[in-house]
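Per-record layout

source: Kitasatospora paracochleata
name: LigA protein
length: 324
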Amino acid sequence: MDLTSGGTARRLLAGVAVAATAPYLTLKLLWLSGSTVGVVGAGFTDDSTLWVLNLLTFAMDAVAVALALAFVRPWGRRLPAALPVFPMWVATGLLATLIAALALTLGADALLGPEPSHGQQAWLRPWVYALVYGGFAVQGVTLLAGFALYARERWAALLRERIGGLPRTSTLPLQRVLACAAAVLAAPAVGLHLLWSVGGTLGLAAGTAAEAGRGLRLTQGVSGLAAAVACAAALALAFRWRPERRLAPLLATGWVTGGSMFAWGAWIFLADAVSAGAGAERTVPAATLLADAAQVAGGLFLLVIGALTLVEHASARADIESAG
């Protein structure tokens, strides 16, 4: 499939991804302009914290549109790798976590029956959740599939490698230190997320646990497990565990779970920081903020390991081709 002209599958995926963002972007624009469509009760438009968070999430979904276009337009291949890779990594982490948690929530609701409304759900109409999370699910599937085709074309040689075939460069000791540091930093956040997923309250503001519905608890559990798997994948990559194994599955696993580790840690930390800065009544415990910040730092370490792997592999291949 030719990336510069765009294949039918990639164009279709990009078109569906862009279309899936339209309802969400429209709803956010309405809320930013003062509308209360889909909202139950008063006070929604007076909350500065929600306004800032709505602006942030609007911008994030707008980036998803740009990414979808980059996967099908000729200029997408000419972009420096970091431009599409970093936002796509973040988007992968957010959307894959949401899709997994949504699937688990729907399954749990089917088996156990739906829960009463909790927290934020109490002031949003049910159709808002169908629109938002339905759109996220479609975006996630189409963006991930589109990026997979894009990556297969742009980094095909790397994906064909085996773990032991990666170059052992002078940065390998640094990569190993970063992988170990990421695991240490992520450990408190992993523990807290898994604890919250089963109803624990350690590190939560008073009343937060009572408002957490099944969907939020499952999201916490998925996030915690993803961070643990991401650190394991980084260690396997840095220490060249199972060198005979294909590299692609390890990269894919680390890509999705590492994105989840960084993106969810950053989103929760940012949301809590915005709430605190806006003078929210409920304070966020310092331990929670520190755990989230450590998770973000660990995720950045994983990003550095991945970037070094990509750059050094490309350099090694260039040297081989020039020598040949």
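summary: The chain has a mean pLDDT of 83. The longest helix spans residues 286-323.
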